[in-house]
Structures are given as structure tokens and as C-alpha cells.
Write a structure and sequence with these properties.
Layout lengths: L4 E3 L17 E3 L10 E5 L11 H19 L3 E5 L7 H13 L22 H17 L1 H15 L3 H24 L17 H10 L3 E4 L2 E4 L13 E4 L7 H16 L3 E7 L3 H13 L8 E7 L2 E2 L16 H19 L4 H21 L7 E2 L2 H4 L7 H20 L8 H4 L6 H10 L2 H10 L3 H21 L8 H25 L8
Helix pairs in contact: 2-3, 2-4, 3-4, 4-5, 7-8, 9-10, 12-16, 12-17, 14-16, 15-16, 16-17
Bound molecules: arginine (ARG).
The site of arginine (ARG) has 8 residues, from strand 8.
Length: 514
């Protein structure tokens, strides 16, 4: 892609709209004023051995976009998946595996040879083992205790259990990567809760020695309440009475390696807003105990729930948890049917196009809402080519591409300097369009400062509407005044460039036609 033009007009006076020379298109990326920051974004949170489900969709989609926005502004950004790989779920899997295959060498404490390199389960088995174990543990006290014991032994380093964990990770991470890939989401770091484990013993000792951690009802805790609190903030739980690590523990110890390895200026967590209290506790504890420097910003971006049309958390038709890959393929199929109806594409192209358009429907449907709000997942609405949807934005872009292509086919060149070839607006539709084009920088700055991809959606929706209005009002290729025609073409190129940049920041792309 060509580099984005910086539009040097930020505070446009109405009058200046008649001076298009003020739209300068220089090949630079908007520079952020001030220092570039190092930012870690924690936006995966998938739990190994469990398939990605729609609950992880929002973290991935919103986090990916915020990562791209920060990078675009010039920050150094590191995305971390922060897998859930260290809790009771591991003990549950080990326990269930033990029930099924007690003969495996992993369970023989006397065994001191090498463990097999082949995992003792496939991804499909793994995904069945976990819910089965989880169900059993809720009904059977002894089973649950066994799972807790296994968790503890794993965390204390039992060799055979560590080997099982490694298998679980290998099998599961391969599958997770495939799924995040399909979503256009990527991470720089594939760390997990378990990577925090080596830092826990020293952290606990130091918290005790510094007088922050104390025993309460057998557990080790750190007070984090503050005199100005209007509601009670319970203490941070550092260790359970049996010495096992908790969710607070791994998040705190994770901040240790994040500080040690990256000295971030900011750590951003994109997590379900129902976890807010947990993060308030951890952030306070990290600052209080000196794990994180006081001037490091710890930011929690809590997102709302994705609901079904019934207003309840989104489920499959039979009430189960919808797997992310099914959601993606369902939307793709829907788009495929629509595209095949138009009948202009062969099957392979239609598949590829529907994948892109489907992803735009899914991501835009999510990102166009303010993250903290719940929203209704409405496939019909999200996949519509009309209204405030991803496909509508792509449709606008494809329309521009097709005009530019026709222009080129008729001998026109797309190399004119955009800034100097754009003439003053000749009517109200051009006036409005120019006005919006010139707000690009302001929109980007707003999205950056507020960590708000929805600001980009609002901007491109307005831009697309203004463009389509201009398109209906104007005979572009039929224009006989060559200078004016060139001005239109430059306006089209500028609009397309801005839209391309914006959808890239949202994490999806446009096909050539649809
Ligand atoms: N694995 C967690 C869950 O599924 C989310 C992790 C979010 N990130 C974090 N650093 N706690 O609820």
C-alpha cells in the first residue's frame, strides 16, 4: 500500500475549504507529538485445552485494533496472548487423563526416563476431556480434591505432570494459533500464566519481608484498600491456604517479567469488564509492593458482553457455547451465498472474497460499539451491505477501486499529486466530503488517546456516506473538463487511501471486487 498522506489541516476553518491547496498529501505517517512509548497489550486470555469461544472474540478483536492504532502512531507495541495455562484446568485434565489411562508413564512417580514426544491425546480429545473433567468435579468432591492436588503438584514441579502440561501446550497452542490467524489477530509473545511461575517464590518472600503480605484465614494476602474507596476493595490473594498460586498471583508475577524484560511505559489489559475488581486489586498491589514503577500506566479496558438477539450472552442454537471458528465460518457462508447470488464470481474467488467481507462484518460489528458496552450480535444486520456495517465500508471501497480501474483502462494515470490536483469543492456534496477527509488526523488522534477503535468506525462510516453522496451527485468519468475530472480522481484516491488505512487499523481488508 502507498504510504498514507498526512493531511496537514487539522483545525479547518469553514472558509479554508475553498483552498484545496491546504490539503497537502505528503508521504509521511502521522507523527505522534511527544515521546514514543513502549506498550505491552494483554489481549488474548485464551485458556489452553479449551477451544476459543466467542467470549475471547472481543478481547482479540479490540486488542488487535488498539495494538495497530498505537503502532501507527509510532509507539513500540508488544502484544502478549497471556494464555490461561496455570490454573485448576490443568489439574482437571491431568486427573481425567489419569482416570482414563492410569498406565501412562507420566503418572508413575518412580519413572525417571524420558517422556514420549508424541502427545497422549489429540486436540479433539483434549477439548472433550476438559469439559468432562470440569463437570465431574462439580458433582464429585473427591474428584475435585484430586484435581486440586494435581494442580498443586504440577505447580510444585512434579516431572510427569510438567510433561503432560507441555503436551497440552503443544497441542493446544497449535490449534489456537490457527484460530487467531483466521481472525487476523497475531501476538508477539505467546506467554502464559505459567511463565510467571518462576517469579512467584521470590515475589512472595519479598512481599512478606517488606511487611506487605500477611496471613488471613490461612491465606496470604496484601491489603489494597484505600481511604478514599467508596466501596470495599478486598485484599489481593497471594497464596491459597494450601500454598497454591491464584489468578492474582500469576498476574502480579507476570508484571515482574514485563518490567524486567521490557520496562513498559504502559501495560494495557483488554479483558471482560466483569474482571475489573481483579485488575483494580492487582494494579494497586503491584504499585504498592514496588513490582511496577509508580509512573508506569496500568490500564484496564473492560469490554461488555456479546449478546444474542434475546439479550442473553450469545449461544449456539442448542444453547451451547459457540466456538469461534464456527462463528467465523457461519458468517463467511452467509456472505458466500450473498456473493454467489450476484453471480459474477467463480467459486474460488467468491470464497476468498466472502472470507474477507465476513471478517469485516464480524469485526466492524464489534468495534463500532464502544468497547465497554454490551452489544447484540445480529448476523443479518452485520452482513448487510447497507447501514453502519463492515460490508458497507468495503462496498464503498470496492466502488472507488472500480472507478479508478475504469479510469486507468481509459488511459488515465493514477500518479498525479493528489494535493495540488484537487480543485475547490464545486457543490455541497464535495464540500462535505472534503470536510470529512480533512478530519482524518483528528479522528486518529481521538482513537489513539481514548484507546477507542469505535472512533475510527464512526469516522469511516461518515466518510463512506459522504463519498457515496458525492458519487450519486457527480458524473465522474463522464466529466469533460479534464482538470475537474483529475480533481475527482485525486479525491477518490485520497478517500480510498484513508479508508484502507482505517480498516487496516481495525484489522480487516478489502477485496478488489465483491
Ligand atoms: N484467561 C482469562 C479468562 O479466560 C483471561 C486473561 C486475561 N488477562 C490477564 N492478564 N488476566 O478469563
Amino acid at each position: 500500500m502507498e504510504r498514507l498522506p498526512e493531511i496537514l489541516l487539522t483545525d479547518v476553518e469553514k472558509d479554508s475549504l475553498s483552498h484545496p491547496e491546504q490539503i497537502r498529501c505528503t508521504a509521511v505517517t502521522p507523527e505522534k507529538s511527544g515521546e514514543k512509548e513502549t506498550i505491552i497489550i494483554d489481549y488474548g486470555g485464551a485458556n489452553v485445552a479449551k477451544p476459543l469461544h466467542v467470549g475471547h472474540l472481543r478481547a482479540a478483536v479490540i486488542g488487535e485494533s488498539i495494538k495497530r492504532i498505537k503502532r501507527f502512531a509510532g509507539d513500540e507495541v508488544i502484544g502478549d496472548v497471556h494464555l490461561g495455562d496455570w490454573g485448576l484446568q490443568m489439574g482437571l485434565i491431568i486427573t481425567e487423563l489419569h482416570e482414563r489411562k492410569p498406565e501412562l508413564c507420566y503418572f508413575d512417580e518412580a519413572y525417571d526416563g524420558d517422556y514420549p514426544t508424541e502427545p497422549p491425546f489429540t486436540i479433539a480429545e483434549l477439548e472433550e476431556i476438559y469439559p468432562t473433567a470440569s463437570g465431574k468435579s462439580k458433582e464429585d468432591e473427591a474428584y475435585k480434591n484430586a484435581a486440586m492436588q494435581a494442580t498443586k503438584e504440577l505447580q510444585q514441579g512434579r516431572r510427569g505432570y510438567q510433561a503432560i502440561l507441555k503436551h497440552i501446550m503443544d497441542v493446544s497452542v497449535t490449534d489456537l494459533k490457527k484460530n487467531y490467524d483466521a481472525l487476523g489477530v497475531s501476538f508477539d509473545l505467546w506467554k502464559g500464566e505459567s511463565d510467571a511461575d518462576p517469579y512467584i517464590p521470590d515475589m512472595v518472600e519479598k512481599m512478606k519481608a517488606d511487611g506487605f503480605a500477611y496471613e488471613s484465614e490461612g491465606a496470604l494476602v496484601v491489603d489494597v484498600s484505600e481511604p478514599t474507596d467508596t466501596k470495599e476493595i478486598p485484599p489481593c490473594m497471594i497464596l491459597k491456604s494450601d500454598g497454591a498460586a491464584l489468578y492474582d498471583t500469576t498476574d502480579l508475577a507476570t508484571l515482574i517479567w514485563r518490567e524486567q524484560d521490557y520496562h513498559p511505559d504502559e501495560v494495557i489489559y483488554v479483558v471482560d469488564k466483569r474482571q475489573e475488581l481483579h485488575f483494580i486489586q492487582c494494579f494497586r498491589c503491584a504499585k504498592k509492593t514496588g513490582i511496577t514503577p509508580l509512573d508506569t500506566k496500568l490500564i484496564f479496558i473492560g469490554f461488555g458482553t456479546m449478546n444474542g438477539k434475546d439479550g442473553k450472552p450469545f449461544k449456539t442454537r442448542d444453547g451451547g457455547v459457540m466456538r469461534l471458528e464456527h462463528l467465523i465460518s457461519d458468517i463467511g457462508d452467509k456472505m458466500y451465498d450473498k456473493i454467489m447470488e450476484n453471480g459474477t464470481m467463480d467459486e474460488a474467488e467468491a470464497r476468498e472474497v466472502s472470507r474477507k467481507v465476513g471478517l469485516s462484518a464480524l469485526k466492524y460489528g464489534d468495534l463500532s460499539n464502544q468497547a465497554s458496552k454490551d452489544y447484540v450480535f445480529d448476523v443479518e444486520r452485520f452482513t448487510s451491505f447497507e447501514g453502519n456495517t463492515g460490508p458497507y465500508i468495503l462496498y464503498t471501497m470496492v466502488r472507488i477501486k472500480s472507478i479508478l480501474k475504469k479510469y486507468e483502462e481509459a488511459g488515465g494515470s493514477l500518479s498525479a499529486d493528489m494535493g495540488s490536483s484537487i480543485l475547490p469543492p464545486a457543490d455541497e456534496s464535495q464540500h462535505t466530503l472534503f470536510n470529512i477527509l480533512m478530519r482524518f488526523n483528528a479522528a486518529m488522534r481521538g482513537a489513539y488517546e481514548e484507546n477507542a477503535p469505535h472512533r475510527i468506525c464512526a469516522y469511516i462510516y461518515e466518510l463512506s456516506n459522504a463519498f457515496n453522496h458525492f458519487y450519486h451527485e457527480t458524473r465522474i468519468l463522464a466529466e469533460t473538463d479534464e482538470k475537474r475530472k483529475l480533481s475527482y480522481i485525486s479525491t477518490l484516491r485520497l478517500t480510498l487511501m484513508i479508508l484502507e488505512q482505517c480498516i487496516d487499523l481495525l484489522g480487516f481488508e478489502a477485496p478488489e471486487r465483491m
